[in-house]
């Protein structure tokens, strides 16, 4: 029996409930590649004013959601279809998992009514996603759609942030239910503040350690940016006169040239310091699993995740919580003391500055090299000189990005993006997309290896379609050089060329074909003018820079990443 129209309850479909829940979280864009299983979400986005950015590969959608989270501080969202759409996005979710980036991937699924009957694109998505997410679930009914989306966001922020996954069966998504039966959590009312202050007694102990330290140093890790603890970190290093090193997303916390900004003397500092404070970064391969810290130093570790503190290496003091809050509390606790140790450390800072300057001067001739083919050091030097305070820098590649890690210094906080510890090639175009979308007033520059670019480069077309100008630079050595080095070293030059050779591809022509700006550079003197012209073009741009294929980064030659 049908009800007369004027008494019929107001109904809402699953896709529209998804869009309402995204809106409640403050999300204004989804990154997606279409499929019949998910179209009702698009229709909901139209109603809620959420933009749909459609990409050409689901990996890019997931990386863009990760990038959006890093740039905005809000979770990112990617929406992909069932089966291959979801498997294509796995790499992006995995990257966000290792990088502690909060994002939600929504995947389609066959109808519940066809569960396990062999429906189109059916796969056990939740089983696949469980090990690489903080939360993975199936939405069981239309009434619960918005509720479970809000649950997934809550789970993204448990401890160190990370990705969540939801699959929504097609009949659940397409069905309409009375609005009164659906739980629709309201913006700002379904989760708590995630800022966690450190144990006050532990903070007092940290202040004590600082008061007595002669040679302290601090490593500001990615969580300093994740928790937006930049100002607290700056206050801390200045008030207590502590030399600071930065990694991952925390690069740029202090500007280059700041008296407490150090980069090239890290190993020396870790070997000679008496107090080492590690903030918001794990003892993983990037830290030599903690083995490279002086065995006699007092080691303090601060992290959002209880499981990270003390993992792989013993520590003297562990504090769980928000980097910014804890550093601010430590500054305050130490400032109350008659002697906080700050003035005593003048010589230590001078000692490190001398090591830093010597390392810089040793490398400078390479950075200014006029050699052809171009020395990669010259390319990354030119990029570093070109960056402004408003340029977001992205690195996506092997050896060429290893070079840039030593030379490129972002000029502002939150202006450095790298894949993180998963080391995923192919994040570049996606991160550029997210960064330019979220911050249209910023300039975005991405340095690619030619291998890395070719993994996801077709989404350059998406940048053109959505008018997202950025400056892409390809360090083109026609090789997967970072891998080639290890092969040549192990098997000899003759056998070292297996599986790592790329064509001499004109990526500048590829850019032009897709409606962007493109230039080729062979002479190092032409790098700067080409960068300027790309900036002026106002288009997505690729500068194809031919770099010397037989020059390797020191990190690659030491094979540091495997040690
Ligand atoms: C998705 C993915 N596949 C493979 C690798 C292994 N890998 C690390 S570096 C590298 C070579 C990258 O080549 P390119 O981007 O051209 O940079 P180059 O080392 O030549 O400067 C490869 C294949 C990876 N990290 N990620
Ligand atoms: Mg290469």
From TrEMBL:
Pfam families: TPP_enzyme_C, TPP_enzyme_M, TPP_enzyme_N. Residues 13-122 form the Thiamine pyrophosphate enzyme N-terminal TPP-binding domain. Its cofactor is Mg(2+); thiamine diphosphate. Residues 396-545 form the Thiamine pyrophosphate enzyme TPP-binding domain. Residues 203-329 form the Thiamine pyrophosphate enzyme central domain. Keywords: Metal-binding, Thiamine pyrophosphate. PROSITE patterns: TPP_ENZYMES. PANTHER family: 2-HYDROXYACYL-COA LYASE 2, THIAMINE PYROPHOSPHATE ENZYMES. Belongs to the TPP enzyme family. This is Thiamine pyrophosphate-binding protein.
